[in-house]
């Protein structure tokens, strides 16, 4: 098996720990084997140092130079539609669903329960 | 967390030398008390000056702004091992100078079991790309640097965060 | 010896018992939690009906909330609850113009139980038996009748009020939104 996703400049990453947990950002510089610089101008992630253990690599990349500015990154994201590609991907949809589920109110949770029951009935 | 201090001190003025020479030193220390103590430690070694016959004129903390650009730092250090005293040149990449120095202290502790007090920093400088000598720096410096995360326990991590601590199946590490 | 004018020659042998000045000069009415409104659906957290979803009808003078199941839907009668013993939800029924002026707090007050001296008395317990005031029943009916069409207007609302709240596996109360 060959690797297809790499820690590299321009890689979209999903952050799953720390301050920006649950957000998507772009790697714009590599400090060393363990640390990278990330920036998410469109997702509210400030330019900061991030441990590679705190991120999950996505399959999406954008064409940016090393040490690109926030402006350049957001322009590249916009032009290449990488963020949309992620949010409309199966993984992105799943994350959006999880967030939506967390935000449900008590009544909405009840309605979901009813719909689940209905689906189970229909499947039977 | 280390801070960088700039300390000025001089011998106490006397009748023979009413305006003694002032010495300025940059010191990395967790706080200003430690920084002042290190200042006297180094002054005793570098000059014939100690706390009893000298005074500190100013202690200024150099603001440690987290930059969003990565820089290469090279530092000369002198450290004492169990067998002798060594000089070494070390290189680190970081966005702040203090975190580069912190990296040096932890690396020295790990590689050579040197404690904080046994390391004397001679110089810390930002260095240009062409002056880099160490492989672990040059390997992440090039144009198209990329590396996989072969031991990314992403799925295992998820399971630990959300569900059971034990799994029937070995977690997949592939991405 | 010079005696000052303030010096008292004779002290009283007994101290007069004067009540201490109370700091509680005014009664602060209970503030209604901002998350609770007239028509809010509340989850009762304690008591006989714990877990039931009820409709809030307003705050009474005593600071307690007046709630009802409605009785017709889930069997929770018109009664008073402390607002700290409910979990408010963001769901609100449009109950503009609901009239609770007929409701008297006296209905809900328990008569003080008299200790039974004999076995017969205990078994009969005539004095401690609560008799529901006819006004209570009529006003419960009237309020239920007011609420029922509003509930019927929202799909699944009746089922929702009928169901009980419970936590399931993986649900963490502090992380949930209501």
Automatic annotation (TrEMBL), chain A:
Keywords: Ribonucleoprotein, Ribosomal protein
Species assigned in the record: Kipferlia bialata
Superkingdom to which the source organism belongs: Eukaryota
Domain (Large ribosomal subunit protein eL14) ranges: 47-119
Protein name, per record: Large ribosomal subunit protein eL14 domain-containing protein
Matches recorded under InterPro entries: Rib_uL2_dom2, Ribosomal_eL14, Ribosomal_eL14_dom, Translation_prot_SH3-like_sf
Entry's Gene Ontology molecular function annotations: RNA binding; structural constituent of ribosome
Alphabetical GO biological process terms: ribosomal large subunit biogenesis; translation
Key word Nucleotidyltransferase present: no
Family: Belongs to the eukaryotic ribosomal protein eL14 family.
Matching Pfam families: Ribosomal_L14e
GO cellular component: cytosolic large ribosomal subunit
PANTHER family (alphabetical): 60S RIBOSOMAL PROTEIN L14, LARGE RIBOSOMAL SUBUNIT PROTEIN EL14
Automatic annotation (TrEMBL), chain B:
Keyword Transmembrane helix: no
Annotated transmembrane regions: none
One annotated Gene Ontology cellular component of this protein: ribonucleoprotein complex
Record-level GO BP terms: translation
Gene Ontology molecular functions: structural constituent of ribosome
InterPro entries per the UniProt record, alphabetical: Ribosomal_eL20 (IPR028877), Ribosomal_eL20_dom (IPR023573), Ribosomal_eL20_eukaryotes (IPR021138)
Keywords: Ribonucleoprotein, Ribosomal protein
Coiled-coil ranges (or none): none
Domain Large ribosomal subunit protein eL20: 2-124
Any Pfam family: Ribosomal_L18A
Matches recorded under PANTHER family: 60S RIBOSOMAL PROTEIN L18A
Family per record: Belongs to the eukaryotic ribosomal protein eL20 family.
Name the UniProt record assigns to this protein: 60S ribosomal protein L18a
Species the sequence originates in: Kipferlia bialata
TrEMBL record, chain C:
Protein name: 60S ribosomal protein L6E
Domain of life: Eukaryota
Database matches in CDD domains: KOW_RPL6
Family indicated by similarity: Belongs to the eukaryotic ribosomal protein eL6 family.
Pfam family, one: Ribosomal_L6e
Residues covered by region (Disordered): 1-28
GO biological process, one term: cytoplasmic translation
Signal peptide span: none
